[in-house]
Amino acid sequence: MRRIVDGALRGRAPVLLGGPGMGRSTAVRAAAERLRGHGLEVAVLELADDDADSGLSPNGVTLRTGGLELARALARSRAAPAPDGRPLQRVPLLPLLRRDLRAWAAASGSVLGEDEIERAFRACGGHPALFAAWLEAHRATRDLRALEARVAEHSAGLFARLDRALEHLELAKPWRWIALRGSASVEEVRRATGATKGALDRLAMAGPVSRTLGARAEVSASCELYLRHCARS
């Protein structure tokens, strides 16, 4: 959120990029409210998953959201400004970390123990829409099997959108390889599948894959509920 707000205040045109259910609308609207608190005129332009055009905007600050097609288009024209002449600032939305889920649960008034946070993280992989469904289901039942069944049923439409995103020629091969392997280093994935860094970035933005940067850069198929859906399909 700080990156979006600070970028807009510095004269940039932030665009939030993410796959299905990654919280683009929620994040951009919250950022717009913060900027309006600074006295700015702010417009929000939400683009569809398959829209590759960043779109025209009215006067003032415009915050954009887009999907993987827009991310690909921006990668092809890396130096291009937004239609309003401001330099674009790309903000990729990635799966949440355990600490993010813990803070979200606490802020929503849900009292989750560490074992419950861990189960939710493994099941949802840090995917915002899935974790929101998990919290809702948790209010109805504490039985793990019934809870996960509720989340999976609620997320059928989201899973269909993820299926379509991961069928793209750029993502299909690395996704299948990672889903079978579970986790691997970035270098291993690139050698085995030929995936570029940009493709792995967009695979993480799609939602069911997490990236770890640090002593050992890794990617992992981190969303058990979606993996079960794929196994049944």
Structural commentary:
It is a single chain. The chain is α/β, with parallel strands linked by helices and 233 residues long. It has 3 domains: 2-92; 98-154, no CATH class; 159-232, Orthogonal Bundle (Arc Repressor Mutant, subunit A), CATH 1.10.10. The protein has helices at 2-9, 24-37, 68-76, 98-107, 114-124, 128-140, 144-154, 156-166, 169-181, 186-193, 197-206, 224-232; strands at residues 13-17, 42-46, 61-66, 88-92, 183-185, 209-212, 218-221. Strand 6 (209-212) and strand 7 (218-221) form a beta hairpin. The radius of gyration is 18 Å and the shape is globular. It starts with a helix and ends with a helix. The model has no long low-confidence stretch (mean pLDDT 90).
Helix/sheet category: alpha/beta
* Global shape: globular
Elements, N to C (H/E): HEHEEHEHHHHHHEHHEEH
- Indicate the low-confidence ranges by residue numbers: none
Mean pLDDT: 90
Helix % is 40-55%
Number of helices: 12
Number of domains: 3
Count of β-strands = 7
Order of neighbouring strands in the sheet with most strands: 2-3-1-4
From the alpha-carbon coordinates, what is the Rg to the nearest angstrom? 18 Å
What's the end-to-end separation, in Å?
36 Å
